[in-house]
Design goal:
The structure is a homodimer.
Chain A: H1 6-15, H2 21-40, H3 43-54, H4 62-77, E1 82-94, E2 100-106, E3 110-113, E4 116-118, E5 130-137, H5 140-151, E6 155-158, H6 169-174, H7 178-189, E7 194-198, E8 224-227, H8 229-241, E9 245-249, E10 253-267, E11 272-282, H9 292-311, E12 318-325, H10 333-344, E13 348-354, E14 362-368, H11 371-382, H12 385-388, E15 394-397, E16 413-419, H13 424-427, H14 440-460
Parallel strand pairs in A: 5-6, 6-7, 7-8, 11-12, 11-13, 13-16, 14-15
Antiparallel strand pairs in A: 1-10, 2-3, 2-9, 4-8, 5-9, 10-12, 14-16
């Protein structure tokens, strides 16, 4: 089957008068990068170690310290000019004993266990647990409509589903995640005793998904737990005709603040060392599953970019910096520290790429920059499209990544690696986010895509 | 993140003077199709039944008869104008007892079991098995170079890997599969006693992959078995320094010819009933795994096209025919029968779409037609690109499908549904091709993509 894309041809026709010798050289070089990544890339092997030998890596946990040391050692073996740890202070939250959730009084079904999981930073219910009547809402706004008299003393059940009709699942996630982040805190303002939040996934199954929960200052913190989508559907069905009481128990607690680190490796630029090209992901994960797609994949891909460019003997003109951020999931202390130090040193990140959308088949990159310069810089980048489109990659306007987005005022390009999004939220923050959910070819193709873009960014710069 | 694609904008600019009211109507209709497919599609549920209740469905097997009856019933429930079975005679081959493969004389490793699986149509070794020296080759051509004196009495080990650097894995498959199809027969011509073929997958693991093996007429058939890629790598390593003997045992046999059926459902066209739009897949599978991606997915997607168009109340102008072909894997008796009867009735397939590349995230469609009309027809179709590109779909020149490609002389368009290819050959013809390997969103998105194209084909026709 001939897969030469008509899009490539049209775009090539549109953007250029012909294929220059320069473009030919770049096409061959990118082909080399892909060959290396698909035959001799190390991302999958590193991910195996990170997920299966170290495990989940919540900020502040011993495992996160092990992960810091592991990736430091791996970067060391790559012959970078320097590898260092950048200290940051991170909250250390602990899930505690396995959670319990149970419908206790259904006249139709009697007692039914629910699959629940405490949300990040949740306080505990106390060892006795909590039993209370459940009230279902679809949004944060609905709380105000119901008011204190309807909510006080109850468990607020946030049940707005992630919209399955969105083609890009990240848009659907963005449309549902406010309930998980702010639900408990807002419900507490109206006197609720706990929050139970529908897992933010389109998959209908028994697996609850955790994620960050934030208490506003001055609000009494109440327990905040996720319930599986099947559990949420059942509960919602019963609530149509019954007054349902639910028992919840979790022993989660905040253990205080721990010292942790961003891990940074650097190759000095041979011509423009003051222009930094960053490639990164975040090393921490939630404490369920193994943080394989979120974001072990992004870390090992970023590391493999350096590795692959080494193997094809590419010596960067600009400073290539691989950054594995700490604590993205639970406060972004690593990203904040990185930004503060970077601005303090008056650095210029000409470009930064973050991979934090899973290790799936690459579809392209999304670009962000300060509004005043975006169009000009993006136009510049679009000229490379004919080189990347044969690999199924598109270049679009869009968000970059939580860890790098704070660098915008350095007036560089902020870039998000954009793999296929269909499966990501099946695994996100859940026990299913393991190595088995990652396909080696898909993972390595992502490293190749990122290395190819880094090569072009480094070689040509951005006006 | 704003995912409006710059490609869409460029192409839209290039192809049209503006967005017409007609295009707006089509955009809304296709949005409806996707909404239905992603919230109320039935493909995944049908696939669950087909794979888990019925199981693998090799042509001639009782399970293939169960599958015929199941999909006939499902089509019946959809209120089609007619559903019928088209008889065809298919070979019935049986794997027999679990195969055995063993390295018996390595001085370095002693005795080592190999994961092997008889290839389709293979004869058996006899109950005692075969032990013989192994000779490794990289191609069919190498047999001639070695000649009878080097090959006679030996097991020929075909070990050319599927090229992992190909971005489209079907190209890599095409570059390796000749060893599996013709290896045993060609080796027999030089006096070999058996063929052992490296599994056609880029995944390096312990899982052997079966597939069709064809004996040329007049050649003495010898046993033909696949070995896992890890087993192949080990064997090849040992052969560098040792004369290795391997023991093989399989009890496969041909049971003769059985009557089976293509299953066909049809909605008569309201305006142009003589113009047929076919959508289909193949109902049979190999006898290992559950035939989930190959090609249960294609069948349930084709059925869901009819189902979804029903649900959005679309009444086809042209005759919409859903065809589930029998025996694609092992001779294509169903496709041959369908073609013969179609030509005998002087039918015109204006367009035919086959889904037989797995139930992965849709990337687009590939188009084929008689050379004399291809450019004109394809140009016609390309005008719909702005409607499909927002769903990540491209339209390219390429192959269609094994079952429909015989219809080319009817001078219609032959279309292959083209999902992402990265994972397909991890599961292809192997025990891992189960429902668990199929993602519901990816599967349903494919049904939506196919239904959208069928809608446009039916509504506008092709000049």
């Amino acid at each position: 089957m001939n897969r030469v894309s008509c899009l490539t041809l049209l775009i090539a026709l549109f953007l250029s008068a012909g294929v220059s010798a320069q473009q030919n050289e770049d096409a061959f070089f990118i082909r080399d990068i892909y060959d290396q990544a698909l035959t001799a890339g190390d991302a999958y092997e590193w991910l195996d170690y990170l997920t299966n030998n170290i495990g989940p890596r919540l900020g502040g946990s011993p495992e996160s310290a092990a992960a810091v040391e592991y990736v430091r050692q791996m970067l060391d073996t790559m012959g970078m000019d320097t590898v260092w740890l950048q200290p940051c202070m991170v909250p250390h939250w602990e899930r505690g004993e396995p959670e319990m959730g149970r419908i206790v009084n259904s006249s139709r079904m009697g007692t039914v266990d629910l699959d629940v999981l405490a949300l990040g930073n949740s306080v505990g219910t106390g060892p006795e647990g909590i039993t209370a009547q459940v009230i279902e809402v679809q949004s944060l706004e609905e709380l105000a409509e119901l008011g204190r008299e309807r909510i006080e003393g109850k468990i607020v059940f946030f049940n707005r589903p992630m919209d399955p009709t969105q083609i890009n699942t990240f848009n659907a996630y963005g449309g549902a995640v406010d309930q998980r982040v702010y639900g408990a805190s807002r419900a507490s303002e109206y006197g609720a005793v706990a929050a139970l939040v529908r897992s933010v996934t389109t998959r209908i199954d028994d697996i609850p998904h955790t994620g960050v929960n934030v208490y506003q200052e001055g609000v009494r913190p109440i327990p905040s737990l996720a319930v599986s989508t099947k559990g949420a559907n059942l509960l919602s069905d019963l609530l149509v005709t019954e007054n349902i009481q639910v028992y919840l128990r979790n022993t989660s607690r905040m253990l205080g603040t721990k010292k942790s680190y961003n891990v940074i490796g650097e190759i000095y630029g041979s011509e423009y060392p003051e222009e930094i090209v960053l490639v990164g992901g975040h090393l921490d994960s939630w404490d369920v599953g193994r943080g394989a797609h979120d974001d072990g994949a992004g870390c090992v891909q970023a590391m493999d970019v350096v590795n692959i460019l080494n193997k094809v003997n590419y010596r960067p003109k600009r400073t290539l910096r691989c950054v594995l951020f700490m604590n993205e999931e639970n406060g972004q202390a690593g990203a904040i520290k990185y930004r503060d130090e970077s601005f303090a040193r008056d650095e210029y990140h000409m470009a930064a790429i973050e991979s934090d959308r899973g290790g799936f088949t690459p579809r392209g990159f999304t670009f962000d920059a300060h509004e005043s310069i975006f169009n000009e810089k993006f136009r510049n980048v679009l000229e490379w499209l004919p080189l990347l489109e044969p690999y199924g990659l598109s270049l679009d306007k869009g968000g970059s990544g939580a860890d790098i987005s704070r660098l915008k005022d350095q007036m560089g390009l902020l870039i998000g690696f954009a793999p296929d999004t269909q499966r990501y939220f099946d695994y996100h923050h859940a026990e299913t986010d393991t190595l088995e959910a990652v396909n080696p070819r898909e993972l390595q193709s992502g490293a190749a895509a990122m290395a190819s873009l880094v090569y072009l960014l480094d070689k040509y710069g951005i006006n």
